[in-house]
Structure formats: structure tokens, C-alpha cells
Amino acid sequence: MGGHECVEEGLALGQRAGLADERSGPLDLSEVSPELQAAVAASPARQQTQMSEVTVGGKDLPAVIIGSVVEVPNAGPYDLYFIYPMGQEVATMGLISNSFAIAGLTLTVLVGAVAWVVTRQVVAPVRRASGVAQRLSAGKLNERMPSRGEDDLALLATSFNGMADSLQAQIRQLEGLSAVQQRFVSDVSHELRTPLTTIRMAVDLIHESRTHFDPTVARSAELLAGELDRFEALLADLLEISRFDAGAAALDVEPVDLRGTLARVVEATRPLAERRGSVVSLHLPSEPAEAEVDERRVERILRNLVVNAIEHGEGRPVDVHVGVGEDAVAVVVVDHGVGLRPGEAANVFTRFWRADPARARTTGGTGLGLSISLEDARLHNGWLQAWGERGVGSRFRLTLPQRAGTALHGSPLPLSPTEDT
């Protein structure tokens, strides 16, 4: 019926007689559940429906089974069951599922391809901009981004190129000013040496004869000699700075035990410490603190650090600690004076910088000592660092590699009181 398998049962559950069991198609009464047969028998006036599974051609298919009671002339009531296997519906749903799967896969591939193309179009210019920025930061000031079109990326490239042009112009201007400054310092320093030598000879002669002068004139001769000493120290520092700027500074390294170097420095600064009322204490290790260094430059660094600690220690003790590590040696100079304000530790090595601009010029030297010390430390691949706290004091740490030319990975002594080595 209607192309569906059906079963016609004339004697349902053995309760009816007169007709033999009949069927059409491969399905029979065994596919009808006892529950449905009982429901038909219980309500002969109503049509009963049930969803079930049937086996057709070796395949299990869902089916709709409809059961009812019909009156057959001359035979009486007759149970009739229609079984509709849903093979075509299952095939249709399978086709739809496959179509959706293929469409989903195709859509995923298309979306992925579109995303890849869009990402490539967006990311590639950003990567080019990153590469150009890295080359600019490496000093290649002529690098620029290609700018084509009128979209946002083209606007970004144009803005980036404008920024690069501005930076290049400013950097070149600063380089020119720096070169002029360095040349001026170098030329003036060298030109002053000849007249300064003559002035020194005259001042020494006047200073030696000051006992024969009027007391006022004698005092003036002493002041003149003192100020000339300061001027010569400033000139020597300027000449040393000009050598660093010109890249002409070189090291003459040899194995040196820094314990002996520090002992000489402390002895040389003892008169200054006595005038300031400070006591300089050396804390030396029992093993040699040996490193391959230029002893003249390292001694200059240590002398600057000790003198700086004495001058700013306000008469309090100054402690000098020496530490030896696996591949480095370190010296920490500690004073208990005025200390440093927050942020000043990064400025103490700046040329001519002074923590207190109003301080009398008789205190603090030329303002170049720590700058020269930093350059000397860098020549050794070393570190020169500062720490300070207002009212607590200051600490300066010099760390040098034991082998010349090697890099530092740490220091055997802490910089601040709370820092681990």
C-alpha cells in the first residue's frame, strides 16, 4: 500500500477466526509488538500507532506501525496492521547530513583561506614595520617603510617614515653638537697645557717665597697655589674625558691583587680622612683578590670612590669591603653620610653633576671623577654602581672580571644592604 510494507492479520492473538493470517511484503506479524496488539484489542474502535525498529534487507530501520480493527463482511472483526519502514527518510537524512558535512568542511576551508589572505595582507606590513624599526634602533637611520595606496596601513607607513626622518635629523644634529663639544673640550684642554705650565712655574716661585711677603700677600699666594692645583686637576680630567670620547683610551693589563692597591689608596687618603674626622676601615679577604686589570686606572677608580666617601661622609666611619667570587672580584665603599635621594644613584656618574648645586666648590672635586671612573670600569668590562638612601649613607660597588675580556654574570658583594649577591 502506497509503496510501504504492510501486514494483514485476520486472526489477532488467536481471538478471531474465519480468515487466515495474511501479509504483503517481507514483513509479518512478528514485527508488531505485543503491546501494540494488546492496545488494538483493548480499543477496537481507535487506531493505535507505535514507533519501532524493523529489519528490512538485513538493515535495521525505524518504522511507524499503525494498527486498527476492521469489519470484514461475513467474517467479522479483522486486525489490520500497516508497517511503514522509513528507509527513504533515513536515506534522505543521510544525504542531508553528508551535504551539511561537505558544506561545513568547504566553508571552513574557504573561511581559513580568506582569513589567511586577510591576515597576510595585514600582518605582512606590520612585520615589515617591525623589521624597519629594529634596523632603525640598530643605528641604520636610512631605513624606511614602503608606502603605497591610501588605506590605514599606508597612512601608518607615511607617519612612521615621517617620525624616522625627524629622529634622523635630531640624532644627526645631536651628533654634530656632541662632536663640536668633544672637539672643543679636547682643543681647549690641550691649548691650556702650555700656558698652565708657565703659570705653574711662576706660582711655585711665588709660593716658595711667601714667607718674605706681607701676610695678606702670602695668604693670596697660598690661595693661588691651591686654586691652580684644582685647575690642573680639572684640566687633567678634561683631557682624560677627551681620550674616552675619541676612543683613544687603552688598557695595560696585568695580574693585580686589589688588596695591595686598596692599601695604597687608603694610605694616600689618610690626611684627607683625618681632616674630615673620618676613619677608613679595610675589610679584606684572606685569599688574594687578584684580577687582570690596568692597575693605574683601577687605582684611580678606588681613589675617587674613597675620596668621595670621605668628603660626603660627614665625619662618620668609611668601610671598604673586598669580595672574591668564582670569576669576579668586587670592592664596595660604604659611607654613613647624607646619602642619596631617590633617582640620584643614576645621576652620580653624569659629568659635572652635583647632588647639591649650592654646596661650596671646595667640596666635591671637579665633578668628573665618577664619570671617569665609570669609563675606566667599562674599559675593563666591569660594573660601577651606586646605591644610597637619604640619612643612611651611600654605597659604591666596583665589580671586575678576574680574566681580562670576559663578561660579568654577577658580583660577589651586594650593592644595597638588603640585596643578595
Automatic annotation (TrEMBL):
It catalyses: ATP + protein L-histidine = ADP + protein N-phospho-L-histidine. It is an enzyme of class 2 (transferase). PROSITE patterns: HAMP, HIS_KIN. Residues 120-172 form the HAMP domain. Coiled coil: none annotated. The lineage of its organism: Bacteria, Bacillati, Actinomycetota, Actinomycetes, Micrococcales. It is a multi-pass membrane protein. Keywords: ATP-binding, Cell membrane, Kinase, Membrane, Nucleotide-binding, Phosphoprotein, Transferase, Transmembrane, Transmembrane helix, Two-component regulatory system. It is found in: Cell membrane. This is Sensor histidine kinase MtrB. The keyword Protein biosynthesis does not apply. The chain crosses the membrane at residues 95-118. Its EC number is 2.7.13.3. Residues 187-404 form the Histidine kinase domain. The keyword Heme does not apply. It holds the Pfam family HAMP.
